[in-house]
Amino acid sequence: MNNSLEELRKVIIEKIESVLTLDDIEKLRNQYLSKKGELSQQMAKMKDLPNDEKPLFGKLINEVKELVENRIISKINDLKEKELLKKLENEKIDVTIPADEISLGTIHPLNQVIEDLEDFFIGQGYEVKEGPEVESDFYNFEMMNFSKGHPARDMQDTFYITEETLLRTHTSPVQARAMLEKNGKPVKAVCPGKTYRRDEDDPTHSHQFMQFEGIVVDKGISFANLKDTLLNMTRHLFGNDREIRIRPSYFPFVEPGVEVDVVYIKPDGTKGYIEILGAGLVHPNVLRMGGYDPDVYSGFAFGIGIERIAILKYGVEDIRNFYINDIRFLQQFKGDLS
């Protein structure tokens, strides 16, 4: 009986070694190890054995079953590894083949200017703040010292949605929100974003345009701090040799107010100036509404026209080119334009 079991063991092992697929090894498992398999049927022979031989025979069957199970598991792992290696070989990538040419886009020139300014001011310790483009009349005008009926509101021909809701005419509402958020503590922030006014579109004006505003409120802030900031910023944008001028101007939310112009060369070779920003010391009324005592705190604010900067920086002749999505125009701004 034991010899018969040993012969069966040898046959099973040989079959396992010769198997080439996972399906075949599974068939062998069912043939020999299932409840009706040949090894399981060997147990039925125990009834014909003397009682003293039954334990030994039962032990031998279990040892053979364990051996066969281990060999099958080992064979399965071996076949799986071979399948994986074959798959990897078939899926091998030839890294020497030229890559597919992918057409890459570029950052829009207006966003390039904004990101450049953000990097500059973050380096000066400013936070970057954002706010809603659909704004309330309160934040857009009243918090900026434009009371109801104020004639200066006519300076900003506005897209109204309702009597109290509008498309913001500047990013100054973000400055107001930044002051209120600080709850009377010093603030130093810049506010980039899109703005809207009912302007006639021409080479230097658009009904939609980008602004980049900044505000600083703290103790001891003077016009000297504002002038130093404006000079450093314009030199960063245009270089130390670009001629600029600072001249008095009026804005309801600052007192005194100034405008900064940058020189450019006209097509006929003559020199002209284009305004790029307005600025000034924050008006005491604006400080009060923002939660500051103007007898203790002072500050300055400025607002930059991003399109004007891009026109001067990159030699663009018409502001409308930034919005018509002409791929021939946009492709000129690939690469580093700093």
Strand order of the largest sheet: 1-4-5-9-8-7-6
Biggest beta sheet attributes: 7 strands, mixed
Q: Structural class of the helices, strands and pairings?
A: alpha+beta
Number of DSSP helical runs:
11
- The percent range for helix content is 25-40%
Are there runs of 5+ residues with pLDDT below 50, and where?
none
Principal-axes geometry comes out as elongated
Radius of gyration: 40 Å
Strand tally: 9
Order of helices and strands: HHHHHEEHEHEEHEEEHEHH
Instruction: Tell me the distance between the termini.
Output: 92 Å
Percentage of residues in strands: 15-25%
Mean pLDDT: 86
What would your notes on this structure say?
The chain is α+β, with helices and mostly antiparallel strands and 338 residues long. It is built from 11 helices and 9 strands. It has a 7-stranded mixed sheet, sandwiched between helices. A hairpin with a 5-residue loop joins β7 and β8. The model has no long low-confidence stretch (mean pLDDT 86).
